[in-house]
Amino acid sequence: MSASTLPQGQQLAVRWYPPAYDIRVEHVAIPKIEHPDDVIVKIKLAGLCGSDLHVYRGHEDVDEPLICGHEFVGEVIELGESFHPGATDRPSLYSTLKIGDKVVAPFTISCGECHFCRIGFTCRCIHSLLFGIPILPGGQAQYVRVPKAGGTLFPIQGPMTQISDTSLILLGDILPTGIFAALQALQHPKLQPTATSVSYPFSGWTPIASPVTTSLQPQDREITLAVVGLGPVGICATVSLLDMLSRAAYSFKVVAIDPNESRRSKMQAVYSAIDEKDRGNGTFAVASIEESKKLVADWTEGIGCNAVLEIVGNNSALTLAYDLVRPFGLISSVGVHQAPPLPFTGRDCYNKNVSFDFGRCPVRALFPIALDLLFRRQDVFGGVGEEKSLVDRIVGFDKAKEMYEVFDKGGCGKVLFDPWM
Ligand SMILES: [Zn+2]
Ligand SMILES: [Zn+2]
Fold first, then answer.
1. Smallest Cα–Cα separation from 336: which of 314, 358, 357, 313?
2. Distance between CA atoms of 369 and 231, rounded to whole angstroms?
3. Are the C-beta atoms of 235 and 213 separated by less than 8 Å?
4. From the CA of 48, how far away is ligand 2's center (Å)?
5. β-strands 414-417, 22-29: how paired?
6. Ligand approaching nearest to the C-alpha of 54
């Protein structure tokens, strides 16, 4: 059924049915404002994400049908009553957002007003809800209702409107999540001696009166990092990591690792697309698991990586991360881990003084950084369907069922749905 033949008040949406592997494109009611803080967004593009596969495969605890998807870019078509020029005591969008504005949203709602939102840990907002669950229909539809929209939405304005929708959709999840993995590593206190050339404990921000006495050797000032997992988020993490290292003028070595040959080729093509002058003062390699262990040992005289970015979310990736990280190193994990216990013991952690940072990306807080990177790195993020592109193809909802099947089997890269195609 095409959009033009739908009954009044109805829209097309991609729905998942329990228990698993059942995707149907159906007509359902166009969402309405339910709360004064709501906004209705007309979807221009919706993403199919690796996280959608958790629901698709029946791995989440859901037993009723839902509208899928948590990545979208669209246009505001209706504002709740909280949106008016006088709402200046709330997040600024309540007084500035207009019908017709182009917007993106994080994959979870964030109010912008609670403790976690105020300090920037927006993914743990006390009102947090993931798009694409039974009580919050997702973005693989023609319209979506956005709760707490003055805190959740991010407007695309000024020069940023030049960025294509196929790029902007990366802001909803994968680009900020990649940036988060890199930021957690580079901002970690344990990396500061290497980053600042000042030995611990004087490298930290805490004012300590004692003079610095040790002098670091050149090899102590070189940062060695690994990225485990080169799906779309892993590629975003690698690109943002290289960008941060280059802009900070750090001396570095980075290895990007995946067992899958086609993912490694994609990573190499993306790296080749980065302008040479922006590649920074370092060495970059793409490697298989076995190659990476040898490479890191050679690079670091056997001591390992300062930090490992783990982007997969399973125990073999965590085991590799633990093997690659050096004593006093950090594992920055943004993979969505499921039920099994972690593959190391308290003793393993003690024996390496290893630090772990786990968890969901505070996407809303990272939007300004992600948008800036997206704008500057259109050489990487700009295209569709090219060898270096993160977005593989754009299809209509008529292909939704097939695309879930193909994507589930690893037969394609990132797919976007155009709900009006
Ligand atoms: Zn996603
Ligand atoms: Zn909040």
1. 313
2. 21
3. no
4. 26
5. unpaired
6. 1
The amino acid sitting at 386 is E
Residues 6+ apart with CB under 8 A from 257: 226, 227, 228, 229, 230, 286, 287, 288, 289, 292, 320
User: What backbone phi and psi angles, to 5 degrees, belong to 32?
Assistant: -115, 160
In this structure, are strands 251-257 and 222-228 parallel, antiparallel, or unpaired? parallel
Q: Is residue 92 located within the same domain as residue 240?
A: no
Q: How far is CA 278 from CA 159, 185, 232, 242, 331, in A?
A: 21, 20, 21, 8, 26
Token representation of residue 367: 């939007």
**Parent domain of 297:** 177-358
pLDDT of 11 above 80: yes
- Using DSSP's 3-state secondary structure scheme, residue 21 falls into coil
Bridge-partner residues for 16, per DSSP?
23, 66
Tokens of 146: 């956005």
Same domain, 395 and 254: no
- Amino acid 360: pLDDT: 95
Element (DSSP H or E) covering residue 307: strand 305-310
Query: What is the distance between the alpha carbons of residues 227 and 173, in angstroms, rounded to a whole number?
Result: 18
For residues 143 and 71, state if they share a domain. yes
What share of the chain in percent tops pLDDT 90? 84
Question: Helix 261-273 to helix 232-247 angle, to the nearest 10 degrees?
Answer: 30
226 Cα–ligand 1 center, Å: 22
Distance 366 CA to ligand 2 centre (A): 15
Please name the amino acid found at residue 396: G
User: Which ligand minimizes its atom distance to the CA of 72?
Assistant: 1
- Whole-number Å distance, alpha carbon 113 to ligand 2 midpoint, is 5
- Per DSSP, 234 falls in state H
> Number of structural domains, the chain?
2
Q: Which residues contact 212 (CB under 8 A, 6 or more apart)?
A: 198, 199, 202
Q: Which two tokens stand for residue 150?
A: 């003055």
Residues 135-162 have pLDDT tens digits of: 999 999 999 999 999 999 999 999 999 9
Same domain, 344 and 224: yes
**How far apart, in whole angstroms, are the C-alpha atoms of residue 186 and residue 205?**
14
- 117 CA → ligand 2 middle, Å: 4
- Closest ligand to 174 CA? 1
Binned at pLDDT 50, 70 and 90, residue 209 comes out as: low
Same-domain status, 188 and 160: no
Q: Which residue has the tokens 């939405």?
A: 153
